[in-house]
Design goal:
5 strands; 5-stranded parallel beta sheet; globular
Length: about 230
């Protein structure tokens, strides 16, 4: 593996999953370049967490981009519509917190960055088991975008396909937490809540808070961040 092909772009939200995915890729030998998107999300507190996580991972570079998806709306994360609270974890359907085409937009931006730094992988923390019904977290979606990357890039045309590396894809939240603990991650740096209080404290009732709490409980690990 050449020096440049050890580069990877990690989509870093500041949440538990992207932090763990980045750390796993780093443990696999990748040099990380972090990309964080300000997309008009109501939980902008995660941007501060992303900076802390990027520093903890020691990334080669951390880029923050403004791509305001709130101009389209269509999600309770980018509008004033209420965020669902206290939903059962096994409820069917796509929740209002789904942001239309968000992962496609994010992966496309990461693909542009990957071409510039000669990265051989894009790291994303999507998860098929605890994904809250989002269609762009499924394994078939990740595989389809990887194929698009082969067709859409200079590297792909030259026969150097770029990998969309989703190491958490088939892990439960508890397994993710345990792996992060093994890697020595400080989850106190992260932010997971969709609807935090004005001072940034997690609500404890949205889907993301519920999934996080269940994961730490099942893993038998105390969560360093307590809802307000």
């Amino acid at each position: 593996m050449s020096d440049q092909s050890r580069n990877a772009i990690v989509l870093l939200s500041g949440g538990l999953d992207s932090y763990t995915a980045g750390a796993i890729a780093q443990a696999d030998g990748y040099r990380l370049y972090a990309l964080t998107i300000r997309y008009g999300q109501r939980h902008a507190r995660e941007l501060e967490a992303a900076r802390s996580v990027a520093a903890a991972l020691g990334v080669a570079r951390h880029i923050e981009l403004d791509v305001d998806l709130s101009a389209f709306g269509g999600s309770s994360l980018t509008t004033s519509a209420p965020v669902p609270k206290d939903r059962p974890l096994d409820v069917a359907g796509i929740p209002s917190t789904y942001v239309p085409a968000r992962n496609t937009v994010f992966l496309s931006l990461a693909l542009a960055g990957a071409e510039v730094v000669g990265a051989s992988a894009i790291v994303i923390g999507v998860n098929a088991l605890d994904y809250s019904g989002y269609p762009d977290c499924r394994p078939e979606y990740v595989a389809a975008f990887e194929q698009l990357a082969v067709l859409a890039t200079a590297a792909g045309v030259r026969g150097d396909p770029l990998r969309v590396y989703a190491p958490l894809q088939m892990m439960t939240k508890a397994q993710i937490v345990r792996r992060g603990v093994e890697l020595g991650l400080d989850y106190g740096l992260t932010h997971s809540c969709y609807d935090p209080s004005p001072d940034g404290r997690p609500c404890g009732h949205c889907d993301s808070c519920t999934l996080r709490a269940a994961g730490f409980t099942e893993a038998g690990v105390p969560d360093p961040i307590r809802p307000g």
